[in-house]
Each structure stands twice: as structure tokens, then as C-alpha cells.
Amino acid sequence: MINTSTTPVTADLTDLANASVRELLAMLTHTEDRLRTTPFLVPDGDAMVVNPEVAPLLSRQRSVVAQLRVRRDTWRGAPGGPTRQGGRTRSGGGSTSASWPRPPWS
To answer: Which residues fall in a compositionally biased region of kind Gly residues (predicted)?
Structure first.
């Protein structure tokens, strides 16, 4: 369970391994929303510099995406994991994507 006393951006990376996929997606959504609203450049005297808030947000985004990829790979490789019917994916894998069904002419 995610520690609710922290925000999704500041939660420990160890929490990522224990988070559900739904929680990971919520963290990713929150992080990306923060990235969209955070200015990339900020004034520092006479120069514009990279906002110091951007780097931790990008790091958090990469960590959450990496954990989601681990979950995807774990599900695909699990013997009792979900199986999909259909042909090969565009990347040459043996299962079809849920978001890209086989076209009727194939």
C-alpha cells in the first residue's frame, strides 16, 4: 500500500514495487500533470535557467514508467498470466495488443 502521508511525486521509490498498477497509473498521471504546469525555464538574475523542480519530476516519471514496464514484462512472462488470442504484434511478439486489435483484412 502506498504511504498516503506523501504525495505521489515524493513517495519513496520502494513504494513503487508495492503499488498496484492503478496506483502507478495515478502517480504517472499526477506527475505528468505537474510537469505540464511547471515552467521549464525560470529567471535567475539576468539569465533563464532550468527550473530545479523539473529534474525530480522527470526522474519520478521515469521511475514510474520503468515500474509499469516491469509489471508488463512480468505479466507477459508469467506461466499463469493473462493470455491473448490473435496473431503477432507489430513488434513481432506472439500476442496482440489490447489497444490495437487485428484489422479485419489480415
So the answer is: 78-95
